Amino acid sequence: MVGLRTVRVGVALALAAILFGFVIGGVFGAGEEGLKGYLKAEGEQALATAYGGDAAKLKPVLDKAWIYLQRAHLHGGAIGAVALGLCLLLASLPGATTRLRGVAAAAAGAGALGYGLYWLLAGLWAPGLGSTGAAKASLEWLAVPSAGLAIVGLLLTAGLTARALFGRAPA
């Protein structure tokens, strides 16, 4: 594909996001109990300070933290695959500038990787912070730009694709 080199940063980031999702899945398969034990230990260390000594308050946080780790796995693989598809589409578009294709691809790939990482960190940090809300709030600096980059990458690709499909054909 002639234009593949123009989207290489996006391709690398998208593949990293997909690998990230697969690795987390492998960790689930190989060490789910160990990972759940880690989350529980983190929560128990913070029991007095973050939960007021109430062990019953820890369980819902642990359950939700586990769901966040699953989201990291799914978002990494899914958004990474979409970003890779966008990169391949961008590489084949006629008439789009190299710079704009590269920006769109890099945004999609960075957004995919960052958003999966956000869910992983939120899941890992929640038990020690005492709530999933606190974990998400502490990672807003990662979540918002990552989601924004993924959306920007998608919108740029959609715009460039629409222009290539429906714009005036060269004479």
Outline the biggest β-sheet.
none
Radius of gyration: 20 Å
Determine the CATH topology: Four Helix Bundle (Hemerythrin (Met), subunit A)
Oligomeric category = single chain
Mean pLDDT: 95
Give the topology string: H per helix, E per strand: HHHHHH
Secondary structure tally, helices? 6
Q: Would you state the CATH class? A: Mainly Alpha
Fold topology:
Blueprint: H1 8-45, H2 47-50, H3 58-92, H4 98-129, H5 132-138, H6 140-166
Helix pairs in contact: 1-3, 1-4, 3-4, 3-6, 4-5, 4-6
Structure in words:
This protein is mainly alpha-helical and 171 residues long. It has one domain (2-163): Four Helix Bundle (Hemerythrin (Met), subunit A) (Up-down Bundle), CATH 1.20.120. Helix content is 84%, strand content 0%. Helix 4 runs antiparallel to helix 6. It starts with 7 loop residues before the first helix and ends in a 5-residue tail after the last helix. The mean pLDDT is 95.
Question: Main attributes?
Answer:
mainly alpha, 171 residues, Four Helix Bundle (Hemerythrin (Met), subunit A), 6 helices, single chain
How would you sum up this structure in a few lines?
With 171 residues, the chain is mostly helical. 84% of the residues lie in helices and 0% in strands.
